[in-house]
Amino acid sequence: MPDAHDALFRALADPTRRAIFEQLCREGEKTVGALTERAKISQPAVSKHLAALKQVGLVRDRHEGRRTHYSARFKALAPLVDWTSRMAGFWESKFDDLEDLLKRMDQ
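Above: the chain's sequence. Below: its structure in token form.
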């Protein structure tokens, strides 16, 4: 499972892929052409980014004639949400320990 988490983080580490994914989240299903207009990169580059996002499950495609429509898969973010929740809990615990230590030092 860690490999799947790593692949998800790697896919989202790229700012262009992140922007494409965010656009799909905000605006819903888009064709490659519509995504290319906004991305300011070539259509083959957008297609490569979409393939990387699809490989980790962040987007799905739907074919309609000669056009391919892409949409975001929010559930694929679950490992990222779980990880950030665990990290938040970890740091909250550390800050609580630090607060306790500082209170004891003040006494």
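Residues 78-106 form the longest helix (29 residues).
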